Amino acid sequence: MTETLHVGIETLHAGARAPQARIAFFDFDGTISTIRSGWVEIMAPMMVDILLALKTGETEAELQALVLELISRTTGKETIYQMMEFVENIEKRGGVPQAPLDYKTEYLRRLNIHIAGRIAELESGSVPKEKYIVPGAREFLEALAARGLKMYLASGTDDVYVKRESALLDVAKYFNGGVFGAQDDLKSFSKGMLVAKIIGSAEARADQIVGFGDGFVEIDEVKKVGGIAVGLATDEPSCLKVDAWKRERLVKVGADYIAPNFLERDALLAAIFG
Q1: What is the model's pLDDT at position 202?
Q2: Could you tell me if 155 and 180 are in contact, meaning their C-beta atoms sit under 8 angstroms apart?
Q3: pLDDT value at position 1?
Q4: What are the chain's domains?
Q5: Mean per-residue pLDDT for 194-218?
Q6: For the whole model, what pTM was predicted?
Q7: Is it the case that residue 63 has pLDDT exceeding 70?
C-alpha cells in the first residue's frame, strides 16, 4: 500500500531503510542532469519513421506504442543496446537493417543538434549551472558527501559525454567513486557490472547501497542485490512535478521511494537513513 511520507515524496515500501549506507549509486541524465532532456522525442520518431517505411500495415500509433515500450524498458542501458533491439524489430518485419552503431550514430547526430545550445550556454558561462541540474540535486549530493558516503555516477550515455557534461555542471567532484559511461567494448562496462564490483570488492554490503535513478535499469540493478532504490520521476526539463510515465515504470521495477526532484532533501534523507 502506498503512503505519503512528505509532500513530493511517495513511499512505496514502508520501512525500506539503509541507516548504515556507505555507497550511493546515481544515474546521470534525468536524475541529476537535464542537459539531454527531450532525448526520447529524438529517438522515438527516428525509430517510428524507419519502421513505418517497412509498410507492414501497422499504424503509426501502434509503432509509437511499441517504440515507447522498448525505450521505457531499456532506459538506463547503453544506447547501443537500444539500437540492437531496434534492429531486431526491423528484422522481425522483414526489413534489412543497418548496423546498430549506424542507428546510434544517427540518433546522436540528431540529439547533439538538439542540445548544442545548452552545451554552448554552459561552456560560455552565460547561464547558471543550476539551469540544467535537477532541482535540489547539488544540495543533496553535498548532504550525502557530508555523511561520508562514497558516490558513483553511472550512465548509459557514452563515457566521453558523461564526463564532459558532469564537469560542465560542476557535479563530477562529488563522485569520489568515479564517473562511468558507456564504452565501445560492451563487455567492459554496465551498471550491473559496477554494482557487482562494489559488492564483490567488499566496499559495501548490499544493504549499504542506495541507488538513485529515473530509469528502469539502475533501479533494477540496485534492487536485485538488495539495496534501497529511490526513483526520480522527474518531469523534465523543469522537474517540479512527478512524471506519470516515469513513475509507472519505476514502481513496476521495485523502487522504494518516488520523488520528482531532490527539493525535499531532509524528508528524503530521513526516509533513507531513518
Answers
A1: 66
A2: yes
A3: 36
A4: 3-34+133-273 (3.40.50.1000), 40-124 (no CATH)
A5: 86
A6: 0.90
A7: yes
